[in-house]
Amino acid sequence: MKSKLYPFFVGLVFVLLSYGTYQGLIGAPTEETMGDAQRIFYYHVPAATVAYTLFFVNFLASIIVLWKRSATADAWALTAAEVGVVFATVVLITGPIWARYAWGAWWVWDMRLTTFLILWLLYVSYLTLRRSSEGGSASVLASALAIFAFLDVPFSYMANQWFRTNHPQRVIGTGNLDPRMGYALMANMIAFLAFGALIAWFRYELEVTERKISAIHVQRAARGVLAGLALPALFLFQAPQHASPTTYMYSAYIAAWVIYIGYLLFLTRKVAKLKREEQELTRVG
Amino acid sequence: MSSSILKLTAANVAKDLRLEWRSRDVLNSMLFFAVLVVVIFSFAFDPTAEESRRMAGGLFWVAFLFSTVVALNQSWARELRNGVLDAYRVSPSAPESLFFGKCLGNFIFVAVLECIMVPLFVLFYNLSSVGPLWQLAVVLFLGTWALVINGTFFAAMSIRTRNRELMLPLLLLPISIPAVLTMVGATTGVLTGESSPVPQIKFLAVYCVVFTTVCFLLFETVLNAE
């Protein structure tokens, strides 16, 4: 927040996201069978990439915490996990909306779906542990859990091979992607990676400030955001044929942004709260 | 050195078993809980013999997972009350032996529970296996170890948090999902005789080895986390 680069970075992310959205909505050609519903892809895949990247950052930071007991690494571990959960939530919301149109079902126990859900559960349990443990033990316990969580992912991927593999459809596009679609995907990929980095940076600065003030009652985990999720999807609770693919596309885009903006609002509220506490502290001091 | 670790482990197991024999806290509550789960499930589903073969694997392991959580919550609480953990931290003995002793103790409790629950399941659900029974025994052994090793570790972790009993299932269940999926798959495979459980058994073995190693590596950190 204090860095001079910050406003510049915000501007850059804004431009990248606008360009990515333009490419995704208008620039890329419409897919033949799925129509506009396929455009959800440009939001879904980048969000998943960002989530995976952040969980990997969390894993690395946790190892550093156990090794060096570094407070900086600990702040990064928490930041990465929390922002990662937000992006993973977007993946889990936009995915079913697309699936409802393409497969006619919100959810199938496909390998990738199940592993991603388990991944999400693992990091939510990580955030819950951080919330309920106190003092210096929090970072060590959470780091141990983070290592377990990261190890668990390949296992759940394997476990699904023998369990409910009725839907082998690949969600991720393979080599036979139209180059213009590939371009739109790349534009969104870069935009969302930058967006993820920006939120993580923001959240990290916030964490550092928070630790300085050492507020006792802090609220973590992306609650509240969940309440907004169901709304855009509500009108899709009918037979898939009744709604046009464009409706699906918009509901997924709206749902994704409800989550991102909801999380940002949550962070902003936190900033306001911290500022108030800081003022009170200086008044007392 | 290794003989002293084994001796300490044996001492820990003996202590746990003796305490349990005198109080019977864990076994009684765990057993009753498991019986309740079995009875409620059989009311809720009321399956025919053919259906029950398909469902029993899932029901059995779910009932089991919950009763294990009940038992594990108790296992460290006793040590915390009596300050054993602090004593262990200042003693020169290896923390691994404490952990290993706890795991073995819990494994024995859960194994006793299994010996009582398996006949109950057979009785309530009219079960008869199509596949060979020795494979079921292997799945039971590996599955129990997978649950107990992670469970003991995460119970040690969750007693350090504010809401102790509540934390254990929240931490243990997500981590155990792959193991549970495989156990259920293997058990259903044997009971229905439709698929060979050998790949799942191999997977469970790898899972046990990996998570046992990680638990041993990280236990000291968790014990000393302050």
Overview of this structure, please?
The complex is a heterodimer of chains A (285) and B (226). Chain A has 285 residues and is mainly α. Chain A has one domain. Chain A has eight helices and no strands. Chain A is globular and about 65 Å long. The model of chain A is unreliable at 165-173 and 215-234 (pLDDT under 50). Chain B is mainly alpha-helical and 226 residues long. Chain B has one domain (2-224). Chain B has eight helices and no strands. In chain B, helix 3 runs parallel beside helix 6, helix 3 (49-81) packs antiparallel against helix 7 (164-192) and helix 5 crosses helix 6 (133-158). The longest helix of chain B has 33 residues, at 49-81. The mean pLDDT of chain B is 85. The interface between A and B is medium-sized, with 30 and 34 residues.
Query: Largest interface, counted with CB-CB under 8 A?
Result: A-B, 30 and 34 residues
Strand content of chain A: under 5%
Structural class of chain A: mainly alpha
What Rg of chain B is obtained from the alpha carbons, in whole angstroms? Answer: 18 Å
Compute the CA-based radius of gyration of chain A: 20 Å
Q: Outline of chain B, from the CA principal axes?
A: globular
N/C terminus separation of chain A:
24 Å
* Number of strand elements of chain B: 0
Number of domains of chain A: 1
Shape of chain A: globular
The SSE string of chain B, one letter per element, is HHHHHHHH
Identify low-pLDDT runs of chain B: none
Distance between the termini of chain B: 28 Å
Taken together, the total number of domains of chain B comes to 1
Helix content of chain A: over 70%
Mean pLDDT of chain A: 78
- Report the major sheet of chain B: none
Proportion in helices of chain B: over 70%
Spell out the helices and strands of chain A N to C: HHHHHHHH
**Alpha-beta classification of chain B:** mainly alpha
